């Protein structure tokens, strides 16, 4: 699989909520760095995300390759519906660090958490 194929499959699987398929794109020790959930093993991050999510809609906005590295960046709009039916929409940059076999070793997620943090706190009963 090429870097571009990995990136596009990642977004497709994420939008469909196919977390096992998302995780299959990672190395066994792959990690996710999230502004909302912190740094977690990929399997744990996607389990927590799945527990909080009712549905997701993504609108792909760009794919960027960094010269002389195995990093690929994705830009997309994310409409996230939580289990309590709260919806938050935000622009996301995901930076995928790939191995030479094009498996995701590390995913760094960048977005403004103002709306999503409040929504997830409400979901968990914090005010």
Tell me the number of strands. Answer: 6
* Biggest β-sheet strands, sense, barrel: 6 strands, mixed
Question: What is the level-2 CATH architecture name?
Answer: Roll
Quaternary state of this entry equals single chain
If you compute it from the alpha carbons, what radius of gyration comes out, rounded to the nearest whole angstrom? 14 Å
Question: Which structural category do the helix and sheet elements fall into?
Answer: alpha+beta
How many distinct folded domains?
1
Give the low-pLDDT segments: none
**Helical element count?**
4
Strand content: 35-45%
What report would you give on this structure?
With 127 residues, this protein is of the alpha+beta class. The chain has one domain: Roll (Nuclear Transport Factor 2, Chain: A), CATH 3.10.450.50. Helix content is 32%, strand content 45%. The protein has 4 helices and 6 strands, in the order H-H-E-E-H-E-E-E-E-H. The chain has helices spanning 3-16, 19-24, 42-52, 114-123, and strands at residues 26-34, 38-41, 53-65, 71-82, 87-98, 104-110. It has a 6-stranded mixed β-sheet with strand order 2-1-6-5-4-3. Strand 1 (26-34) and strand 2 form a beta hairpin. The longest helix has 14 residues, at 3-16. It starts with a helix and ends with a helix. The model has no long low-confidence stretch (mean pLDDT 90).
